[in-house]
Amino acid sequence: MACEPTTDYLRWEAEVLRLRAEYGEQIRVIALNEHPPPSEFPEFVILGDSALYTIEYDRGSLSGARAYSDRTLIAACRESFDALFAEAEEFAGWYARTIR
Question: By C-alpha distance, which of 45, 47, 84 is closest to 62?
Answer without folding.
Answer: 45
